[in-house]
Amino acid sequence: VINWLNRPQRFTVKIEPPPEGTTTLKGANYIDVPANAERAYALKFHTYVEGTTDAKITLTNEETGEYLFYEISLTAVKTPVLSTFDLATVVRQGKELEIDLANPLSEVVKVTATCDNPDIVLQPEYELRPLGETPCKVIFRPLLPGGSTTQVTFSSAELGDFVYELQTTATAAGADRSIPFKAAIGSAAVQTFRFQHYLQSGASYQCTTDNPVFTIKSGDSVSAPAAPGPEGVEVEVEISFEPESIGECNAKLTVKSEEGGEYVCILNGHGTEPVPQGPFEVPGSLKIDFKNPFSVPKSFTVAVDNENFTVANRLDDVASRSAIPLNIAYRAGDGSNTAKLTVMCEGLPPWLYYLKGV
């Protein structure tokens, strides 16, 4: 501040307009300048938010009414990264992080958080307690294996931005679970595999098994609707087990989407002997569907232990996993009106059907 007179001057200082919000621009109310000299006037500028603050500093000699003024422009640049955190987990397993945010104000401040990585789960809003620190929870829940670097920003009108860097690593998961099945040869057991879809948009998942005795009832894909929230939405896949041998057999179910990730389930099947069926009433004639449970065409021999019942004695080259009718005829005669029909395939116990003529 320059004094152009041959005597000392006292200038009163006016700063206008006053800064808005939590921004402050302060200085002494007056300054004394010796004759024909100059003296620096100190201003203290403080802000929590990015942006530009314009002000006019007017210095007035109250005795003479003479004054001078300065127009200043102060710019607050973008907040740098305050800290970096490493987060590592298995896909779909949440990893929590608490970041302490300081609120120097004497009132509660509400902040919102943003992140361009959809694997980072944030609360809609955080409240920072006055004159202290508040832990704000961030969850890393990846859907696909891999690593990346991203930023999460907490923002408020009063305190501006808090910027943190997250270095994330996700590893592939193993099998999500296992499902047991038990069924007789020639019959089927159905179980349901359930998984969570976390994307806020719908997706199609391809479903495959590595053993043909396990099939997906809905076909080779299942559609998942958009998840309504961070907890996801449950999706079901129905699996049918049709054994072609007695004993244990296993398979791996894979449910996969390019966006939603991959789920694996171990399928443990147990095949048992064919279950006897009947009695079937035969009012002269009857068709019973017999299914070839094998993954290749097979031939079967057929026998009935009562001459009052007749049926073809062979089923040749029945297509894999398809049904063919057993055409049974009954004519009342001497002896019993009941019979046992047997369908046989080499190396396996027979299928038994009990008949009753009417």
Protein topology:
Elements: E1 9-16, E2 24-27, E3 30-33, E4 43-46, E5 51-60, E6 67-76, E7 81-90, E8 95-103, E9 109-115, E10 120-121, E11 126-128, E12 132-140, E13 146-156, E14 160-171, E15 177-184, E16 189-197, E17 203-209, E18 214-216, E19 221-224, E20 233-241, E21 247-257, E22 261-272, E23 277-282, E24 285-291, E25 298-304, E26 309-310, E27 314-318, E28 323-330, E29 338-344, E30 351-357
Parallel strand pairs: 7-14, 15-22, 23-30
Antiparallel strand pairs: 1-3, 1-5, 2-4, 5-6, 8-12, 9-11, 9-13, 10-12, 13-14, 16-20, 17-19, 17-21, 18-20, 21-22, 24-28, 25-27, 25-29, 26-28, 29-30
Task: Provide structural commentary.
The chain is an all-beta fold and 358 residues long. The chain has strands spanning 9-16, 24-27, 30-33, 43-46, 51-60, 67-76, 81-90, 95-103, 109-115, 120-121, 126-128, 132-140, 146-156, 160-171, 177-184, 189-197, 203-209, 214-216, 221-224, 233-241, 247-257, 261-272, 277-282, 285-291, 298-304, 309-310, 314-318, 323-330, 338-344, 351-357. The strands form eight sheets. The chain has a five-stranded mixed β-sheet, with no helix packed on it. Strands 15-22-21-17-19 form a five-stranded mixed β-sheet, with no helix packed on it. Strands 23-30-29-25-27 form a five-stranded mixed β-sheet, with no helix packed on it. The chain is rod-shaped, with a radius of gyration of 41 Å. The N and C termini lie far apart (122 Å). The relative contact order is 0.10.
